[in-house]
């Protein structure tokens, strides 16, 4: 079972808690995701394209809780859900050593260290749970996120040219990054 217990941090204006998502959080997570996707165009999916049902979100959370190579974290600031981080695997035997990272923080909470704390807990968990490689794709214009990932040892593996077509017809590249477990010699 992939589970992280409650971690609490004193922040300038209150308390940040981070822990594994539970099925009882499903509805709140759905609302969070829709809001987060409406606040930025750095995410690949538009809010109206996200159509998970409550049952699908419940199942998604259960899958993460029951898989020893996957993790779903939620961050609450003074009790308000403000961020999530997910490490997902594709279930293939030859890919069992790696996970794909996804992370979102509500815009009003950017720059307060919430993404950094989520990433810190997730990376430490991955390192002690046999994850050798964490991969991600990030909008190449999202310099704040790219700098955060670099601070955690992520390196650039390449660009996906014209990966996203924006509403105005412009194209954006995605940057593929990866972090390797430091206990493994490359």
Describe the structure.
With 186 residues, the chain is α+β, with helices and mostly antiparallel strands. Helix content is 27%, strand content 34%. The chain has four helices and eight strands. It has helices at 26-39, 54-66, 114-128, 143-151; strands at residues 7-11, 14-20, 71-77, 80-88, 98-105, 133-139, 155-165, 171-180. Strands 1-2-3-4-5-6-8-7 form an eight-stranded mixed beta sheet, sandwiched between helices. α1 (26-39) packs across α2. The longest helix is centred in the middle third of the chain and has 15 residues, at 114-128. The chain is globular and about 40 Å long. The two termini are 28 Å apart.
The coarse overall form would be globular
Q: State the low-pLDDT regions, or none.
A: none
Largest sheet: 8 strands, mixed
Strand order of the largest sheet: 1-2-3-4-5-6-8-7
Q: What is the terminal separation in angstroms?
A: 28 Å
- Given the structure, what is the number of helices? 4
Mean pLDDT across all residues, rounded?
96
The level of helicity is 25-40%
Rg estimate, integer Å: 16 Å
Percentage of residues in DSSP E strands: 25-35%
Structural class: alpha+beta
Secondary-structure element sequence? EEHHEEEHEHEE
Beta strands, count:
8
What's the helix and strand layout?
Elements: E1 7-11, E2 14-20, H1 26-39, H2 54-66, E3 71-77, E4 80-88, E5 98-105, H3 114-128, E6 133-139, H4 143-151, E7 155-165, E8 171-180
Parallel strand pairs: 5-6
Antiparallel strand pairs: 1-2, 2-3, 3-4, 4-5, 6-8, 7-8
Helix pairs in contact: 1-2
């Amino acid at each position: 079972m992939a589970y992280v217990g409650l971690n609490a941090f004193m922040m300038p204006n209150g308390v940040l808690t981070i822990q594994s998502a539970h099925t009882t959080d499903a509805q709140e997570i759905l609302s969070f995701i829709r809001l987060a996707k409406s606040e930025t165009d750095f995410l690949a999916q538009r809010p109206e394209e996200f159509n998970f049902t409550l049952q699908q979100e419940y199942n998604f959370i259960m899958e993460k809780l029951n898989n020893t190579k996957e993790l779903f974290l939620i961050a609450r600031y003074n009790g308000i859900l403000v961020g999530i981080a997910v490490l997902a695997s594709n279930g293939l035997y030859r890919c069992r050593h790696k996970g794909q990272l996804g992370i979102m923080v509500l815009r009003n909470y950017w720059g307060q260290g919430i993404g950094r704390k989520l990433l810190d807990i997730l990376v430490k968990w991955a390192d002690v749970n046999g994850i050798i490689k964490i991969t991600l794709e990030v909008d190449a214009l999202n310099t704040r996120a790219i700098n955060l990932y670099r601070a955690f040892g992520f390196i650039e593996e390449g660009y996906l040219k014209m990966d996203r077509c924006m509403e105005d017809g412009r194209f954006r590249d995605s940057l593929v990054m990866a972090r390797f477990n430091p206990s493994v010699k490359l």
